[in-house]
């Protein structure tokens, strides 16, 4: 089975709309294993939703689907406060997860899951499809780590992941495909994985001119220059479509902390349209709330 041939029902299907100055959860379908809270109100965004799993992780052979629609002008943060364990595949059958994010004109979505934890024998195929209107903004946090509990025997694991970002008429902004398994990670190839065992990325999808991207890249580089437990790089997306911050870390704790920090920094850039004068040197407040 390939990423393109698999399909999943949407156990999590949410639609947000802006009514007056408020963002409301206009429609929702929530099935096992997901559970959601009522939207919270925050100073930075109009609606904040907490999504949790009640199943204890992702199991071999499961098919999971998420779909989130954010209507014109709505402002939403979707947080998943707990990392998700990918358990050993049943009879060698990989789990499948699809995520579809649709963000309309003038809207803002922060989609912030915690990293996946790949247990021995775990296998997952994950596809994320993002559609963003020209004047909308999306912040996405994504990552995974290898973990070997002492009580579990070693077993091969594998993650196939693809992120596709398009504009509202279907033009491709970015596509990122990755495959990770024990052989690749354990090889510790210089310039590929080195000794790192946890990897992730923070995406900012928003129209940004080249000087704005450069300011963000410089700020990220300065912030992480002295952190020895992770390596961070920032790249501009094609067509002035935003930036992606990639993180390689020694372990899950270092990865989670780095992704939190990077997500906070790019979130701060969503509305500022950063310039050298506005963002340097103190544009990022490490104590500010995330999205």
Automatic annotation (TrEMBL):
Keyword Chaperone: yes
GO function terms (MF aspect): nickel cation binding
Major localization listed first in the record, in broad terms: cytoplasm
Entry keyword annotation includes Cytoplasm: yes
Source species, domain of life: Bacteria
Pfam family, one: UreD
Subcellular location: Cytoplasm
One term under GO cellular component: cytoplasm
Keywords for this protein: Chaperone, Cytoplasm, Nickel insertion
Assembly, per entry: UreD, UreF and UreG form a complex that acts as a GTP-hydrolysis-dependent molecular chaperone, activating the urease apoprotein by helping to assemble the nickel containing metallocenter of UreC. The UreE protein probably delivers the nickel.
Function: Required for maturation of urease via the functional incorporation of the urease nickel metallocenter.
Family membership: Belongs to the UreD family.
Protein name: Urease accessory protein UreD
The organism of origin for this protein: Vineibacter terrae
Gene designation per UniProt: ureD
């Amino acid at each position: 089975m390939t990423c393109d041939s698999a399909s999943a029902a949407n156990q999590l299907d949410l639609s947000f709309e802006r009514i007056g100055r408020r963002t409301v959860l206009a429609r929702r379908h929530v099935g096992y294993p997901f559970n959601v809270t009522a939207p919270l109100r925050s100073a930075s965004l109009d609606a904040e939703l907490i999504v949790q799993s009640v199943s204890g992780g992702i199991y071999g052979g499961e098919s999971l689907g998420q779909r989130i629609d954010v209507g014109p002008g709505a402002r939403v943060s979707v947080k998943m406060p707990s990392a998700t364990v990918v358990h050993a595949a049943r009879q060698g059958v990989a789990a499948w997860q699809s995520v579809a994010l649709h963000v309309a004109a003038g809207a803002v979505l922060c989609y912030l899951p915690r990293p996946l934890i790949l247990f021995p024998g775990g296998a997952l195929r994950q596809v994320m499809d993002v559609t963003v209107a020209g004047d909308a903004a999306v912040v996405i946090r994504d990552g995974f780590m290898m973990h070997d509990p002492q009580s579990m025997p070693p077993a091969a694991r594998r993650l196939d992941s693809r992120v596709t970002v398009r504009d509202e008429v279907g033009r491709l902004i970015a596509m990122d495909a990755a495959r990770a398994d024990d052989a690749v990670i354990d090889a510790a190839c210089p310039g590929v994985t080195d000794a790192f065992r946890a990897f992730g990325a923070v995406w900012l999808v928003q129209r940004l001119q080249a000087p704005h991207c450069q300011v963000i890249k410089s700020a990220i580089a300065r912030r992480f220059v002295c952190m020895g437990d992770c390596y961070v790089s920032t790249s501009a997306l094609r067509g002035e479509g935003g930036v992606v911050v990639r993180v390689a870390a020694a372990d899950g704790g270092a990865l989670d902390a780095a992704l939190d920090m990077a997500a906070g920094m790019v979130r701060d850039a969503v509305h500022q349209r950063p310039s050298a004068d506005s963002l340097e040197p103190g544009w990022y407040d490490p104590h500010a709330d995330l999205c």
